[in-house]
Specification:
The protein is an alpha/beta fold. The protein has 6 helices and 8 strands.
């Protein structure tokens, strides 16, 4: 009798959930419930807690229950574009998590659980498009992070513990109200340096590996500095049609 679907959202049954399991490119099992109009976390999916990936993005979820800890095999969790105002402390128990996207929600710094710093295997974290006015320094404990998104928040600074994470390659902090242009440049510069950072330092290489890397670098430098000699024109005997280097031999091509 005239159910208000917009308010109650779509009811996800176990059958619907089972039919929403896909095989990801690396062979894992992915439960894809994105864009389903879900307003509350479907309890039935706890029976599918052995999946490797869970996608609940683009719904209307306001809360993730502590029962999320049942998904102990989870490597990939996508919660972007919901209405989340907080995350449960239990999220810190997902020790296999590699990827966490909580972009485009209503998260505040106060409601970011400290337990996020327990996700020791996390490589990619997206916190963009939220209501964060600061980043907890404790996120510096995530030593495996290679990418972090902090764009479009209310940040005025980024802690050094995050900027100097050892494996960080990409840090997106655009669209934040940093105090002045100088500080904006500092953050931009830190991103550039991170993107070109060599993850293995010379002092950590054995003699043979170091020599091999140096030789390869020397070869690249020589290639960059080489200018083609006009007296030695390459010949292409098996070429069917002349290219730019053979234009001055067109008569020969016609004879062939």
């Amino acid at each position: 009798k005239g159910k208000a679907k917009g308010q109650k959202g779509k009811k996800i049954t176990l059958k619907i959930a089972k039919n929403s399991i896909r095989i990801s490119f690396d062979g894992g099992r992915r439960l894809d419930l994105s864009k389903m109009g879900i307003t509350t976390f479907p309890k039935c999916i706890l029976k599918l807690a052995d999946v490797d990936e869970l996608d609940l993005s683009r719904n209307m979820l306001k809360k993730i229950p502590s029962s999320i800890q049942k998904f102990q095999k989870l490597r990939w969790l996508d919660l972007h574009s919901n209405q989340l105002e907080e995350l449960p402390q239990a999220i810190g128990t997902l020790q296999n998590l590699f990827y966490l996207n909580i972009c485009n929600n209503k998260l505040t710094t106060k409601n970011l659980p400290e337990e996020l710093n327990l996700l020791k295997n996390l490589h990619i974290l997206n916190l963009g498009l939220n209501c964060l006015d600061s980043i907890p320094t404790s996120l510096g404990a995530l030593k495996e992070l290679t990418e972090i998104g902090l764009f479009d928040n209310s940040l005025t600074t980024i802690p050094n513990s995050v900027k100097k994470l050892p494996k960080l390659k990409k840090l997106n902090a655009k669209g934040n109200p940093f105090p002045d242009s100088t500080q904006q440049e500092e953050h931009a510069d830190s991103i550039k340096r991170i993107e070109t950072l060599h993850l293995v330092q010379e002092k950590d290489l054995c003699c043979s590996c170091l020599k091999m890397c140096q030789d390869e670098r020397d070869k690249l430098n020589k290639l960059k500095n080489v200018t083609p000699s006009p007296s030695k024109k390459p010949s292409f005997p098996s070429l069917i049609t002349p290219n730019s280097t053979a234009k001055d031999n067109q008569e020969e091509w016609r004879l062939r």
